[in-house]
Design goal:
The complex is a heterodimer of chains A (about 180) and B (about 160). With about 180 residues, chain A is mainly α. Chain A is built from 7 helices and 3 strands. The chains are: A mainly alpha (about 180), B alpha+beta (about 160).
Chain lengths: ~180, ~160
């Protein structure tokens, strides 16, 4: 343990050309005098050479011309409008911003619901305000149901046939609906 | 506090807060206690062309019935509790029992029974808009017909 273990990283940086001139010179002087560091330098240089050799061999097998041609074609090709629009949308609304859309929609829905409960006529005139007849029993009498659209009026009308039962003989009984 | 700076957590907290507000608003929204039921008993006939000025708000609805004359015989309002009922005395020895059933979607469900003496004339269940009305008519009355305007307001 002569303190040279800490110099391994410095030697790596030196071999990579990352040290300043003064640092590199100081380390070079030390490596010349220190057998352990000289050995480390040789070992690292050997690893570096092996790696470079392997990378060069791999790179030679790659067909860069074909690769670049494909890249150029993709750069030059005109993308469909919807894809461009989608990408613009994505860049305008990144995922973090889009996440806010969820509570924003909830808030909007709540606002709409609240508005409806506090302002009953908020839903507008377009909504059906007719009375809805869910059940009706006229005990055998005739009954007519009228819905008048202009005034949104629902009319339930009881009437009896001319020859039907005469329940109020002394009065003028209507023979049918008056509408 | 560093966690609060993370957008997903902020989003989650905001959503939870929104839901809490919604729940509170839902609880705060009061269920109406009573329904004010108003019955207008009207005599419609062809004996003359008089139109009772008190019926002005109903004029457009009544004109649908094609009679020439309309006269208000009785106008009565009563507060009716939910699931309860009230009986209105109607001209001609008739009575009208009204029972509010439910209040949903700003509409009131009403069960209505018209009787003449002990004899039932009509049973119906109608759902009307809050503050809305419907017309029930047809029984003979004084040379014309009886027309009832039945309206309800949640209170």
């Amino acid at each position: 343990m002569n303190g040279c273990e800490n110099r391994i990283e410095a030697i790596e940086r030196w071999l990579d050309g990352e040290l300043s001139g003064a640092e590199a010179e100081s380390l070079r002087v030390h490596v010349t005098a220190c057998a352990e560091c000289a050995e480390t330098q040789r070992r690292l240089e050997k690893i570096q050479r092996t790696l470079q050799g392997a990378l060069r061999a791999e790179a030679q097998q790659l067909e860069f011309q074909r690769f670049w041609r494909a890249v150029q074609i993709r750069i030059n090709e005109k993308r469909p409008w919807h894809r461009e629009a989608l990408e613009r949308l994505r860049s305008a609304f990144p995922a973090s911003r889009a996440a806010w859309a969820v509570p924003a929609v909830i808030a909007l829905l709540l606002a709409a619901i609240s508005l409806e409960s506090y302002l009953p006529f908020w839903r507008g005139a377009g909504r059906n305000s007719f009375a809805t007849v869910e059940s009706i029993d006229a005990y055998g009498r005739n009954v007519a149901l009228l819905r008048e659209y202009d005034t949104k009026t629902t009319v339930i009308w009881l009437y009896q046939d001319q020859e039907g039962e005469n329940e109020a003989a002394e009065e003028t009984a209507p023979s049918g609906p008056a509408f | 506090m560093k966690l609060l700076k993370k957008p997903p957590l902020r989003v989650l907290l905001f959503s939870l807060l929104s839901l809490l507000v919604a729940t509170a608003a839902g609880i705060a929204q009061k269920q109406p206690q009573n329904v004010q039921v108003r019955i207008g008993a009207i005599l419609a006939s062809n004996q003359n062309d008089d139109f009772d000025s008190r019926l002005k708000p109903l004029e457009k609805q009544l004109r649908v019935l094609k009679y020439r004359s309309y006269r208000l015989l009785k106008d009565e309002s009563q507060d009716v509790p939910w699931k309860g009922n009230k009986v209105f005395q109607i001209p001609g020895g008739r009575s009208l029992m009204v029972a509010p059933q439910e209040f949903q979607d700003n509409r009131i469900g009403l069960k209505v029974r018209l009787t003449e003496g002990q004899k039932p004339l009509l049973d119906t269940t109608v759902r009307i808009s809050n503050k809305g009305n419907f017309i029930l008519g047809g029984p003979p009355q004084e040379g014309g017909v009886l027309v009832l305007s039945i309206s309800a307001t949640a209170q």
